[in-house]
Design brief:
This protein is of the alpha/beta class. The protein has two domains: 2-58 and 359-449, no CATH class; 60-351, Alpha-Beta Barrel (TIM Barrel), CATH 3.20.20.140. Helix content is 32%, strand content 24%. The protein is built from 15 helices and 19 strands. It has an eight-stranded parallel sheet, with helices on both faces. Strands 1, 2, 3, 4, 5, 18 and 19 form a seven-stranded mixed sheet that branches. The protein has a two-stranded antiparallel sheet with strand order 14-15. A hairpin with a 2-residue loop joins strand 14 (402-404) and strand 15 (407-409). The longest helix is centred in the first third of the chain and has 16 residues, at 98-113. It starts with a strand and ends in an 11-residue tail after the last strand. The relative contact order is 0.18. Bound molecules: zinc ion. The site of zinc ion (ZN) has 6 residues, from loops.
Length: 460
Amino acid sequence: MSIAIRDAIIVTQNRDREVLRGGDILVEGDRIAQVGGGRVRDSVDMEVRVDGGAIAMPGLINTHTHVAMAHLRGMLDDIPLDTFLERTFRLDAERTERGGLYNSAMLGIYEMLSSGTTTFVDLYYSEDVIERAVEKSGIRAVLSWVTLDPDKTTQRGDPVKNAERFLSAVHGGDRVKASVGVQGIYVASDEVYMKSRELAERFGTVVHTHLAETRKEVYDFVKKTNGGERPIEHLHRIGFLSNRTLAAHCVWATLREVKMLASAGVTVSWNSVSNFKLGVGGVPPPVPEMLQNGARVTIGTDSNGSNNSLDMFAAMKHSSLAVKNERWDPPSLLTAQQILDMATVVAAESLGLSEVGEHFSWEEGRHSGTEGQRPEPLPPHRDGECSEQHRLLRQPPRQRGHCYGGRAAAEVRWQAPQGRRGSLQWPPLCVSICILRRQCGKYFNTISIGCRKSYELAGS
Ligand SMILES: [Zn+2]
């Protein structure tokens, strides 16, 4: 199947971070065949016309969530993290029905696809159930089976063995990758951390963990070690941290610890909205220092329990504002472009996704047979003007997808070549493109083109 997306403003995220005005995008099968090369051929199966100007850009990557908690939106408000964890562990223990996990995962996936996210990294148990939702929906995912001490879990059996079984069972296709996770230092011994690291090495994947999220976590650990070490220092000393580590939060990190994260090659997932909702501490994580020292920083939403949303545009905006406010707004400290990079190319590189250069960064090489037709890049933005990158953060697009009666459907208006008009149920194809439509100068809609056919939530 082929799709032409006509006349979009294209935020390429290529090496020069060019923005192209008025180009087409051609999708063939599950590949992005041409980007920004003027008008692509007329003989396509489907045209997506974007009225009034629209941005098309690579899909976003959410590097930390727990998608099967999507149903918990609004159910865990006004409580600190330790109470939050107690309640979620209890809710998980009560949730024995696997269909509930599946439906929740579908709901979360739908929310991500309808707000521009086409890849996510999950941390949970029963990732085999979530994998089925990922396969069905067409989204891309790295699924980290969470481990912790056997006496502190609601999982049946040994969590490390469960993770190993999951890693062995998922052979790794183009869209679904298996990984291993560790819940956090408050429920996992050194042995669990190191076994998980070994699994990540053996299976060539990421090891995903919560780290230094709250002051309580840090102080409790310091107390436990008789004032010896903080969590990041400890995991660095025992050799857990490496370039396979994806560490969510890292809010309570000293400059010394930031240097440890950077030297070990750790990727940080910054979950600004979740941190603020749970009130984890006085300041955002030291992101400017992380960047100055060479640590890779990406963006996550965390779960709907601690965020009430899986919207990455909202997360990007919040992250940007949090640092500007905390640092008294040195404007160049963290730019809109850097934030967009965290949510696309940096995340893709960190996760070792093979689609780098295709789905998350549309390079010159993606243009085929378009010599001389390439649209002019927009000039760099000047004082008093608003770049497309700034626009994306200034006005996060509102979702237009609907979820009603248990049935998920987002509409794309389209016109078939033979003149038929109709609306298409989300999602039609398996590529990572996020389209943001614009009306009255504001982006009001995102459409993620995600998979081959529409679906209904199970049990609806
Ligand atoms: Zn989390």
